[in-house]
Amino acid sequence: MCGIVGISATVNVNQLLFDALTVLQHRGQDAAGMVTLGGGNFYLRKDNGLVRDVFRTRHMKKLVGHMGIAHVRYPTAGTSSSAEAQPFYVNSPYGIALAHNGNLTNAESIKQELFKTDLRHINTRSDSEILLNVFAHELVQSGKLQPKPEDFFKAVRRVHERCEGGYAVVAMINGHGIIGFRDPYGIRPLIFGKRESEKGTEYMIASESVALSASGFEVIRDVEPGEAVFIDSENQLHTFQCVQGVKHPCMFEYVYLARPDSIVDGIPVYQAHQRMGQILANKILREWPEHDIDVVMPIPDTSRTSALEIATRLGLPYREGFVKNRYIGRTFIMPGQEVREKSVRQKLSAIHQEFEGKNVLLVDDSIVRGTTCQQIIEMARDSGAKSVYFSSAAPAIRYPNVYGIDMPTSEELIAYGLTDKEIETEIGADRLIFQDLEDLKKIVSSLNPQITDFDCSVFDGKYIAGGIDSEYLRRLAASRNEETRANERSDSIMDLHNDEELA
Ligand SMILES: O=P(O)(O)OC[C@H]1O[C@H](OP(=O)(O)OP(=O)(O)O)[C@H](O)[C@@H]1O
Ligand SMILES: NC(=O)CC[C@H](N)C(=O)O
Ligand SMILES: [Mg+2]
Q1: Structural domain of 227
Q2: 301 CB under 6 A from ligand 1?
Q3: Which one of 56, 77, 147, 441 is most buried, by most CB atoms within 10 A?
Q4: How many domains does the chain have?
């Protein structure tokens, strides 16, 4: 997952883009970037780091223009080199900058096609640069100096025909406008809205609704799967269904990725967390009516809401036994297992008296690599807990993600190949309770009954897009396992895109 945003306004957009990125920071902590369009020129600043570190006053001053796109990155393809930070840029046709959230599952074969048939060079190993070049190539086919919205929509349709996987995209076309589109399954989120100014209507397209509301934009609606929305240079909105879509939003957005104050595809994430807690409490009461839990505790941050609901439904006290250091980011999306392990201890510390002699039920939203729960359970025991029970508001994650979440190998997942009982032993819990997948689907869908299908591949191994087979998963695992990535973490690729002046 990454965070993307595009704005077409009547004032300079640099500060608006910066504000939106800070609100989307939870979607990517590795790199950030922004391109603005002012006086016919693109201005680009991108680098590794958090939003507040990448954009200093000296950069902001130069990022002028009323239109721009921006990105926060959490890599799922290529390397963590700053050259692969986004947006990416191509000069032909027109000059296009693009930012992408997701992952292309046929990146390798398109790269070959781009080189051999379209005569295009890809300079990095990022799938986003590939996506940009497919879009650019297809746009060239219109052969027009003054393209119309239909020409952009036609190019998006060709992108859908050529690219497979999960993708939500914003792109800025010099002299023409900003376009946003989403893959035909709508796996990754994208929403757009507007606000009125004295000089006219302004538009924002972003990964999550919270980016819009934070800057006073009113949500119009989610971009539909396979649809494109285009805001031209006069700030006129055009929308078009480029290919038929079937909505399958990623279930993990509701479990962990999206902010609780966002509404994704009409489903309020906070309410989804609440219901996950309620239904999990029902399961506990059903399967373990004689439980001896004294107290319910969240593992901050994401599980707070569901833990509170569990406590309420069980009629037990809710206690915050772990204090979170607010200056440490999300550990799951940090690169490298060593960093993640160290960060859990730095991030969370236990309040001893809350554990002393008690049977505690710890609640987390999910168990991925098991880094958090293993350490937390140990900390709870060290703090004097009598018994440590653990519950996860999501089912066990046993399968890799191929659509934009960095879980590339099943071997890295603690639940891989293990029964629930074996996971319980592995993480050192006295009892472990997972949410059932059918329950999860039912409650999330009940918040927007129009959505009946989700991408639940990390839970059930069913991949809806991209013809994923075991050979693909084997190659993905080989290219993105911890060892390969540890050797790649360097800035060995020269960045062709960065303006010296802005660096
Ligand atoms: O099993 P693991 O590999 O440890 O991954 C799962 C954990 O990672 C996430 O927390 P994170 O610290 O990223 O973010 P949060 O503060 O939003 O909960 C998630 O909420 C779980 O706590
Ligand atoms: N997490 C994402 O959405 C990643 C986008 C893109 N695949 C990259 O690696 O930069
Ligand atoms: Mg967490």
Answers
A1: 3-246
A2: yes
A3: 77
A4: 2
Instruction: Look at residue 491 and tell me whether its pLDDT is greater than 60.
Output: no
Centre of ligand 2 to C-alpha 493, Å, is 17
Q: Is 57 annotated as a binding residue?
A: no
Choosing from 459, 475, 490, the residue where a domain stops is 459
Pocket test for ligand 2, best of 27, 101, 253 (most atoms within 8 A of CB): 101
Is 281 found in the same domain as 174? no
Q: Are residues 310 and 236 in the same domain?
A: no
429 pLDDT above the threshold of 80:
yes
Q: What is the structure's pLDDT at 492? A: 47
Say what the pLDDT of residue 501 is: 46
* 78 CA: nearest ligand 2 atom: 9
Lowest mean pLDDT among 204-213, 327-336, 449-458: 327-336
**Domain boundary pick from 424, 439, 459:** 459
Q: Mean pLDDT across the stretch 201-211?
A: 98
Give yes or no for residue 76 CB within 6 A of ligand 2: yes
Q: Which residues of 171-199 are buried (b: 16+ CB within 10 A; e: fewer)?
A: bbbbebbbbbbbbbbbbbbbbbbbbeeee
- Distance (Å, rounded) from C-alpha 308 to C-alpha 313? 9
- Can you tell me which residue has the tokens 């293993």? 374
Residue 402 pLDDT > 80: yes
Do 93 and 182 lie in one domain? The reply is: yes
Ligand 1 centre distance from Cα of residue 241 (Å): 36
**Interacting residues of 41 by C-beta distance below 8 A, sequence separation 6+:** none
- For ligand 1, whether the C-beta of 412 sits within 6 Å is no
Q: Which helix (H) or strand (E) is 387 found in, with range?
A: strand 387-392
Sign of the torsion formed by the C-alpha atoms of 56, 169, 253 and 368: negative
CATH for 53? 3.60.20.10
Residues 176 and 138 in one domain: yes
215 and 290 together in one domain: no
Region 260-287 average pLDDT: 98
Are 242 and 272 within one domain? no
Confidence of residue 502 (pLDDT cuts 50, 70, 90): very low
* CA dist 186 → 88, 155, 190, 232, 243 (Å): 22, 18, 8, 23, 12
- 494, part of any domain: no
Domain for residue 338, yes or no? no
**CATH number for 363:** 3.40.50.2020
Q: Are residues 287 and 362 in the same domain?
A: yes
* CB distance 100 to ligand 2 below 6 Å: yes
What DSSP state is assigned to residue 412? Answer: G
Are 76 and 213 in the same domain?
yes
